[in-house]
Design brief:
Elements lengths: L8 H7 L4 H5 L11 H15 L14 H10 L4 E4 L6 H6 L8 E5 L14 H10 L5 E5 L4 E5 L6 H4 L1 E3 L1 H7 L9 E3 L1 H4 L3 E6 L6 H13 L1 E4 L2 E4 L4 E7 L3 H4 L5 H6 L2 E4 L6 H11 L12 H16 L12 H21 L10 H4 L2 H4 L6 H6 L1 H20 L6 H8 L12 H8 L5 H9 L4 H17 L3 E4 L3 E4 L2 H13 L1
Parallel strand pairs: 1-10, 1-11, 4-7, 7-10
Antiparallel strand pairs: 2-3, 5-6, 8-9, 12-13
């Protein structure tokens, strides 16, 4: 547990025992024999009583995933997080270190972070036997008690558990089967900490067997030699459900030894997704870029639409990294436009989403139908649908019938490309009601934001099939079939 809060930090540093004798005489002695799972449990109980967040920065899991992880830790279970990509699995595993004590004492010179009061390794026991109360103590910070391994098919038992080192055996004058001749892998070096394996099904069956032997029996065979490894470690894993059939599987005995299986998921609402995207996206540019609310919402809607699109592979999922990358690219396009025109205050536009398709196409795994149409065409359709949904959410109080009627009289509006906002406003002024709608939407007397709002109205009407748009002519009247489809959709909604 944490040291008393009333003790000044400087005094705590000086008061930390430096030898085993001093440690036995200090308040740390009562921690002897306490496992890392007990330590995590005790600190978690304290945090829950204080009412603090267990996983700061994790959005949308308060009622689903977090309670299950808390239950697993309170039960002292090894556990696995099972979910599609981009669901914060690794981030939550790494935050487990915040539930460890700030520092713990270890035997100086011990390879396995031995508890000075209860060493488990042959080397640690030898140090205590040789030096007694004069054995030196080191202090291990919580950040160094987390070891993570990304599983790949080429990972071996030697990487995870260890291997016989003939040179070490020769130097020590021991037989090869002696524990002292082992060169330890990542798992033993995580003793008294947390060992995480990402993408668990990618590990070969042989390595998975070695894992569950260590978890349950505390022993393992290294090159035919049985070695006792009574490690004190919390094992946590992550996996993607598609891996069970696409690349590998978790062997049944290992699944049986994992105490809890926690299912993760994507954020349930657009608002939760926007909170995650705003938290994770890099938005701090040299000039403050204005991102109107409808642009930020449309960015998030792209992920939600993609997850529902039949042309996108549901088994692979659509990562939360998609809207994060998309928002960053949208902001960059607004920044680029401002730099070209010398604008001091860049404003993101809804059309910037189409300029940022490069942040979408690479993150979509397509079904056969989607592959036939092409990744960019599918991404463009998804962006248009996202804009349509966002417009439907924001256009309730707007009167746009006059705008639609103007186009239905066979009129055309073509907005010039990379030009200052005033040019756009001059062109929009010829469409009755468009500037009024843009002012009502933006709520500001700023040319850039009014121009962005006016374009959002036009793009929203196009996405809802109330007007049309072509690359050659610009905004036009909707085709009769599209107009009927748009009317049917509005009636349905």
């Amino acid at each position: 547990m944490d040291e008393p809060a009333r003790t000044p930090v400087a005094r705590v540093e000086r008061a930390r025992p430096a030898t085993l004798g001093e440690l036995r005489a200090s308040s740390w002695a009562h921690h002897a024999g306490r496992s890392v799972k007990d330590e995590l449990r005790a600190n978690l109980v304290a945090r829950l009583r204080e009412g603090g967040p267990v996983f700061p920065g994790i959005v949308g899991y308060d009622e689903t995933v977090v309670p299950q992880i808390v239950n697993a830790l309170l039960s002292r279970h090894n556990f696995i997080l099972l979910g599609l990509r981009g669901q914060a699995k690794t981030r939550m595993l790494r935050q487990l270190t915040s539930l460890l004590d700030p520092v713990v004492p270890v035997l100086a010179g011990s390879e396995l972070n031995d508890d000075p009061l209860a060493p488990v390794s042959l080397e640690g026991r030898a140090i205590v036997a040789d030096r007694g109360d004069e054995a030196e103590i080191a202090w291990l910070p919580r950040e160094e008690r987390y070891v993570e391994k990304l599983a790949t098919p080429d990972v071996t038992v030697a990487d995870i558990v260890g291997d016989i080192d003939p040179i070490k055996a020769s130097r020590l004058g021991t037989r090869l089967g002696d524990e002292r001749s082992v060169h330890y892998g990542l798992l033993p070096r995580a003793n008294r900490g947390v060992f995480a394996v990402n993408e668990l099904p990618d590990l070969s069956g042989k390595v998975q067997v070695a894992l569950f032997n260590v978890m349950q029996e505390g022993d393992v065979q290294i090159r035919g030699y049985p070695v006792r490894l009574p490690l004190d470690v919390l094992l946590v894993f992550s996996a993607n459900p598609e891996d069970y059939t696409a690349r590998g599987k978790i062997i049944t005995p290992l699944k049986d030894r994992i105490g809890s299986e926690v299912r993760t998921h994507y954020q349930g609402t657009v608002e939760e997704g926007m909170r995650v995207t705003a938290q994770e996206a890099w938005t701090g540019r040299d000039a403050d870029v204005v991102v109107p609310a409808w642009v930020a919402e449309a960015v998030e809607q792209v992920a939600f639409v993609a997850r529902e699109d039949a042309r996108v592979d549901k088994h692979s999922g659509v990562s939360q990294r998609l809207p994060i990358s998309l928002l960053e690219t949208v902001i960059s396009n607004a920044e680029r436009r401002a730099l070209l025109h010398g604008d001091a205050r860049p404003v993101a536009r809804i059309s910037d989403l189409y300029q940022a398709l490069s942040a979408v196409t690479g993150k979509l795994e397509l079904e056969y139908e989607g592959e036939l149409k092409g990744g960019e065409a599918v991404a463009r359709d998804i962006v248009r649908e996202a804009i349509g949904r966002t417009f439907a959410a924001h256009a309730g109080p707007l009167d746009v019938d006059e705008v639609v009627a103007w186009f239905e009289d066979d009129r055309v509006l073509r907005l010039p490309g990379e030009v200052p906002a005033e040019r756009w406003l001059d062109e929009m002024a010829q469409v009755p009601g468009l500037l009024d709608a843009s002012e009502a939407l933006s709520g500001r007397d700023d040319a850039d934001e009014r121009a962005a709002a006016g374009e959002f109205v036009l793009e929203g009407l196009h996405a809802r099939k109330r007007i049309g748009r072509s690359e050659e002519r610009g905004y036009v009247a909707a085709e009769p079939d599209a107009r009927e489809a748009g009317a049917a959709r509005r009636r349905w909604n």
